[in-house]
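Sequence in, structure out.
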Amino acid sequence: MFDDHEIISTIEMVKNENLDVRAVTLGVNLFDCISHDLPVFKKNIRKKILTHAENLVTTCDAVGDKYGIQVVNKRISISPIALVGACFSSDQMVEIAQELNDIARQVHIDFIGGFSALVEKGIAPGDQALIDALPQALAQTQRVCASVNVATTRAGINMDAVLAMARAIKKAAALTSDADGLACAKLCVFCNIPQDMPFMAGAYLGVGVADAVINVGVSGPGVVKRAIERNLEGQPNLNLGDIAEIIKRTACKVTRVGELIGREVAQNLAIQFGVVDLSLAPTPTVGDSIGEIFQALGLTTIGVPGSTAALAMLNDAVKKGGAFASSHVGGLSGAFIPVSEDLNIAHAAANGFLSIEKLEAMTAVCSVGLDMVPIPGEITEECLAGIIADEMAIGMINSKTTATRLIPVPGKRAGETVYFGGLLGEAKIMTVPNSDLCDPFVKYGGQIPAPIHSMKN
């Protein structure tokens, strides 16, 4: 139960510190929709999704109004299309993406995730069809998000899939060159992808999950920043252990709010509640930034020496606070560092404080990876694949989730500005050293074996 102090402080978070429920995501299992007949399959998935999602938006709005806490994004995740649509060709996969886009528009959600494949140990025909379809599917839709898992700690890294994804990303960027490669902002390449994640673009409904489930993503970078500043103002002699405790307690309160909203939405929709994902996911709004937390901790900006240590402390404290607040914490539940989506991080990159090499180092301790990073459009497929492989290796060796959402901007070079709009923000294109290299390493293909510590049975 909340005590009086917790209630008052939570009200303050809502009023002045940008606390909201970032996303309520309805997961829908599509395995009972399978058919070899494409029109029948599309009819089945439309009926199944509409059955569960028809009242999603109105229910989220009603629960948010009841508690005075806005549910910003209402989304849907589905079973991986490469599995439930395994019999279809790449052209038919594009038709499925268009159908999903139309369904998302009909129920008034902003994104539907699950145009996905799991290929960490090999590429089946359905997986290949989906990967081949990705550029057209993402270029021709506005609300469909895709993810491909190419590595796990248990399986290693599928280098054939890594190179295939580099090629797909380049093609998707070219097809949306008039929008600075916007299609790539809806595509994530993963190592160790969670199967219960409510955040796009990586969300999908994993195998072994309920037929329908509500997952909640809560974000509170502004809340954490203000908690640090408020306590340092009153107690200037606090050490980093004390500050970590403050972050942990703040994360606990935020997680409770998210679970409260999520459970009521699930109850009203008669759908099982899944997890609350407390990930500090920023917006391009001043005061709602991960980067500003680093400044509150006494660093000039994110990217300077000490940033990786600060991020490690932040991520750990967020996870501990969430785990204390709820037994249903899942997804990522840590700190995102997306370049274009965080105004402060975008400024740090533009001003030379944050390089892509430092960003990669920081992903060893954050919750995702190289997220929403605009890079020069002329980068070679081999270099792009190498960056993806490096990020996958960090996740594989450290038994954690890592991902890339890289956007090679056609016709633009490092230092030029790109505008994606809305939550996707804007940023200057980051410099990628040696982006013109065509080293054959990634073309050898095959499997980079799993590390020895993956043998846990």
